[in-house]
Specification:
eight-stranded parallel β-barrel, globular
């Protein structure tokens, strides 16, 4: 699965002032990522405000990105949920043309046991016609996929090829890397500790800030994968303040403020999310001006 080694970007959904999907801005954003050396794109993840999109809007977004991408980069589709059986049926019948894999978050709100998490992904792996990348983000799901469970999944379910690990815990990530098979992708889901994870043996990142600084962030990851820690850390410390800024009031409010500053989208979010405060927006603007 070399196509998912490096820097993936979790795309936002640009909205117009009337809250409709801004197709033109989405097309421009995709082109911007491709031109600036991103390795693959993640569609309809958390950053896309997918929880607040209709089924019709999701299909529009998928079709727009597939058409604009035109086979140039691998595409990963966010496809997760806490109704295991319904999600399995959706994967069996859904339109997945143009996508190379799915990214599936651990069931949220239900708070399953580790055995429940394993059985959930067993059903998903068997139902999905595409390879599956797990997504562990305890801050959103209220449950953590332990390294031992990931290792069990990796060894038992060949259709599961990797994990986006976003527990914010470098020790857990290192334990995970040490346990799983060599060809299983441990992908960072935490922008700030992406480089340490890569240097510890991780295979890259699915990033939010990479969308704002795609050329620089992807170069940092490439240097890390090549073992060039000193050069990579120069870029890390250059970018790092912006990571704190874009997550200060939640995602994707911060990254949308940054992309608005860079004239790539309108600064519009759907409730219950709201745009970044004036103070934070000014700090983001100042950083972009000085970058």
């Amino acid at each position: 699965m070399k196509e998912f080694v490096g820097t993936g970007v979790a795309l936002i959904t640009p909205f117009r002032e009337d809250f409709s999907v801004d197709v033109e801005a989405l097309e421009n954003l995709v082109e911007n990522q491709i031109e600036n050396n991103i390795d693959y794109l993640v569609v309809l993840g958390t950053t896309a405000e997918s929880a607040c999109l209709t089924k019709e809007e999701k299909e529009l977004i998928k079709a727009t990105i597939v058409k604009k991408n035109n086979g140039r980069l691998p595409l990963v589709l966010g496809a997760g949920g806490n109704n295991t059986i319904a999600l399995g049926e959706e994967l069996k019948t859904g339109k997945l043309d143009g996508f190379s894999a799915i990214l599936s978050v651990s069931p949220y709100y239900n708070k399953p046991t580790q055995e429940g998490i394993y059985q959930h992904f067993k059903l998903i792996a068997e139902a999905s016609p595409l390879p599956v990348i797990l997504y562990n983000v305890p801050g959103r799901t209220a449950s953590n996929i332990l390294p031992q469970t990931v290792n069990r999944i990796a060894r038992d379910l060949p259709n599961v090829i990797g994990i986006k690990e976003a527990a914010g815990d470098i020790v857990q990530a290192m334990n995970l890397i040490s346990l799983v098979p060599e060809d299983f992708l441990v992908i960072s889901g935490d922008d700030m500790i992406t480089l340490p994870k890569v240097l510890a043996g991780g295979k890259g990142v699915i990033s939010v800030i990479g969308q704002g600084f795609p050329k620089e962030f992807s170069e940092m990851v490439s240097l890390g994968l090549a073992g060039k820690a000193k050069e990579a850390y120069k870029l890390h410390y250059k970018i790092a303040p912006s990571i704190d800024l874009i997550f200060a009031e939640g995602n994707p409010g911060g990254i949308k403020a940054l992309l608005y500053k860079k004239e790539l989208c309108q600064n519009v979010l759907r409730l219950p999310l709201v745009k970044a405060s004036d103070t934070l927006t000014q700090q983001i603007n100042d950083f972009v001006d000085s970058f």
